[in-house]
Amino acid sequence: MEKMVGQRIKRKEDPKLITGNGVYLDDIKIPGLLHASILRSPHPHAKIVSIDKEKALAHPGVVAVYTGKDLEGKINPVPTSWKVPGMNLIETKQYPLAIDTARYVGDGVAMVIAESKYTARDAVEMIEVEYEVLPSVANQKEARKEGAHQIYEEVPDNVAFKYVAGEVTDEDLENAEVLIKGTYNTQRVAPSPMETRNSLAQYNPGSGDLKLYVGSQNPHIHRMVLSEVLNFPEHKFHVKVADMGGGFGGKIGVYPDEALVSYAAMDLKRPVKWVETRNEHFQSANAGRDMMVDLELAGTKDGKITALRAVNHANIGAYLATFGPGNPTIDFGLMLSGPYKIEKAQCTTYGMYTNTMSVDSYRGAGKPEVTFMLERAVEDFARKINMDPVEVRRINFASKEEFPFTNAQGLIYDSGDYVKALDKAVENAGYQELREKQKELRAQGRYIGIGLSSYVELSGFGPSAVAGGIGFQGGIWENSTVRVHPGGTVTVYTGTSPHGQGHDTTFSQIVKDKLGIPYEDINFVFNDTRAVSMGWGTYGSRSLAVGGNAVALATDKVVEKGRLLAAHLLEADVESIDFSEGIYSVRGEAGRRKTFKEIAKAANFAWNMPEGMEPGLEEKTFFDPSNFTYPFGTHIAVVEVDVETGGIKILRYIAVDDSGKIVNPTVAEGQILGGIAQGVGQALWEGVQYDEKGQLQSGSFMDYTMPKANFFPKIEMEFTETLSPVNQLGTKGVAESGTTGSIAAAANAVMDALAPLGVISIELPLKPEKVWKAIQKGGAKS
């Protein structure tokens, strides 16, 4: 029988969703349901002088109105959960509703609870707030300048933290044959899932239980953090995730809104629902990226990179998000040298408070940013020494013989063959032919650009001891239980939290291969803190590398217990029992056999068990890997720039990625494809815009430009397979690779197209008006 791992199996999840039978949070209807709406500050920074809620309370259908002062002493601040040692973090307090001061456009000021969502929204507009507008700052570099307004009195210069990784001296740079200096910024972007954030809380006053449906990528973390915020016992707190329309990192963090809804449900003893509007998403959902980096790259004239030094001003917003401090320090700072063998690298990161919404994880979380900046600098370096950028990468890659490879900041990469992925991408693109065609077209006045991006990313978040060492406030092992029913069917419980990734499909392929039972006989349970004892969720490309391996190991335990029982029933030595394709048999005696289904029945009926064996066929595993995993690859973008308009057309896009063992190529390609759309979207179109004071200027899709499917050619994808040695399956992770590799590929292609015109740098996103202005200026930086 052919193994399912590695096969293109159609997704189990799809029929329910594409036939309209999915149940999303807003589909859930509970008798007596109330609806919440939140009044948000229109000012970037303002003292709350007074709040008059009488008109709102008098409005028909309104049940309650809460302000920050109403909740003072009743709900704790929402904490941050990643406190990196050595960063000297100044942690301020974010209360679910602002008490005295609103610190960004969208900061919650009051909440209305009403019989319908429309009544709640109408009543919010009846609340009268008197504000005293205060000075504000939105740009992180401006926030650190002398004389900038302080957002918090206790935070000098608005610096929440400073973190230094590695060491590079001035001499390391000044004595170099070639020195590249550049400022490379990644703008703020909005996660923008199809389904916005939401929560529905239901309190049972009889049992004292609280149930919270929430759009979350990690329901157990939500339970743990909200228990602290609400002073509510975890064992009485049930968190469940319905079908969820995407997250992209925006639903990792714990938000004030979820605490507010939970409190209101307990206070009013009626269920309460809140669903974020799209405008609220742009105002108050954690954004991503927003880093300004001054980077110096030292090298030799023959192409060897000798040192890197970066100063990163990371905008963390008005409050510390759940994982906000870790992304620019660990995920960015420790990955500064990328896939290259560079002896010296240093990254100094300033986490800056500003009067903007908080910044947290967005697909890739630090790795796309550092890859963009490094790969832009590598291209600039190649151009300065007049060497093909492909050759520069070959010269500097860590070779496959050097793995496990320790990078300049001390991270140990598990496995890799960077040259193989690069060569495959170059081959698939027809790179040399593209360069010749580029010359021909330039002679005709057409500006074609070819951009490369080679990356490696820290993924498979799982080593708990390492997590503790870098200040992550929790373990990141994973848990799975495999339960075999009397009829031989199987239910698998996992602590991962799928919301579009296809875990039900890929994890079932793993179990099917190990047990030899029909694929349709396997069912998965997830996203439920009552059903799954503990789990650390889905982010950081960890689900397959950690969660999938937990499933595999628990299934192995089931097989071994079945082997013991089969030996007993077949009256044979355990060592002589083989298991293959769902059959236990005595080696060399084909007639002596038991099917997995027969063993399942025998174990659950327990009429005839070996001495000391407990009834049932169910096993649990907690898998804590020994290291992170490190996917890698090379992307090549080909674009044409219209110099008359600044418009950019993507002609081709080639991606070669290595994610370790691929369980389902179709699912993996879907992840790469979606990631590329988001990465190229950031490079060319997307961006959350604030004015210099912090007033939001991109509050809808009219102003925030999302890419459409017809903006892209067919994406040419291929995988190489370099197995990871840190888990049984050899998997690495795939969900963030498309984004990590694509921002720089697209940007480098545009800059390559414009190089003959003297354009050396344009800040993202590369919208037509920016490109056109840069062309008019020629060699000036834009």
UniProtKB/TrEMBL annotation:
SMART domains: Ald_Xan_dh_C. One of its GO terms (molecular function) is oxidoreductase activity. InterPro entries: Ald_Oxase/Xan_DH_a/b, Ald_Oxase/Xan_DH_a/b_sf, Ald_Oxase/xanthine_DH-like, AldOxase/xan_DH_MoCoBD1, AldOxase/xan_DH_MoCoBD2, AldOxase/xan_DH_Mopterin-bd_sf. Residues 19-135 form the Aldehyde oxidase/xanthine dehydrogenase a/b hammerhead domain. It comes from the Bacteria. Pfam families: Ald_Xan_dh_C, MoCoBD_1, MoCoBD_2. Keywords: Molybdenum, Oxidoreductase. The keyword Oxidoreductase applies. The keyword Oxidoreductase applies. This is Carbon-monoxide dehydrogenase large subunit.
